[in-house]
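quick one before i forget lol
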Amino acid sequence: MPIRVPKELPAIKVLEKEKIFVMDEDRAMRQDIRPLEILILNLMPKKNETEVQLLRLLSNTPLQINVEFLHASTHETKNTSNEHLNRFYHEFEEVKEKFYDGLIITGAPIEQMPFEEVDYWSELEMIFRWSKTHVFSTFHICWGAQAGLYYHHNIEKYLLTEKLSGIYSHEVLSPTWSILKGFDDCFLAPHSRYTEVKKSDIQKIDELEVLAESEEAGLFLVGNKNHRAFYAMGHLEYDRDTLQQEFERDMKKGIKTETPSNYFPKDDTSKIPKLRWHMAASLLFSNWLNYAVYQNTPYNLSELLSE
């Protein structure tokens, strides 16, 4: 079954070229089915790229999904046009009375800043608080994961000595968790960040469990034992060339940065990186939708208020 998005969303053209079935609103209205309601809080600068990346992963499921996009209204976006935001994105005031089966909170390239200094932190706190009663399961990505752990569990992030960037091997620690169903013992995933969350801090919180980690990159996936929240420290949604674009951007800005680890063949930046993590990405997001969301979310979402 397809994902349902606004008819004119530019991401549709990219996904259709990849033979991904995207259903527009007109056709979806004629289907007698209770679709999953998914909200994506997109905090990334290049919102169009992140839309394609996440919609691609959400499409890999037999479930029909209604997808809506949310942006931080208290932040001025420089890399996405106001026309695009006005046409395809909601502000929090427009969705705060609604209920959702799932919420995805993306990363943001601001991890070196204290949380309270982020210009939309107060708005994000409202969204975190609202999600407890209006969202069944939330998937947090990279900085979004660090922010979620800080808000919900008072877990701090720590500055690394240098940027962590590259493709790293990870070990599955809790294979019995449904979100990791079908995973091999080890899998690859991209990381791109200046900060980390420590495993020892996660282990102090009874309701949290470390599900996957890397010897080189540290934590990758943390889950709440009630399956209502997951925190991924890496970027499985990244495209083949996303790390390359970030590396070239940093170089142009004069930011001292190392070549992404285990990314370019033989560390030759002129060669095309191999795509080695999308199988794990598809499986992780499909498992989240199927096991954490679809099989447990109430049919009547307003029942979330009584939980």
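fyi The longest strand covers residues 158-172.
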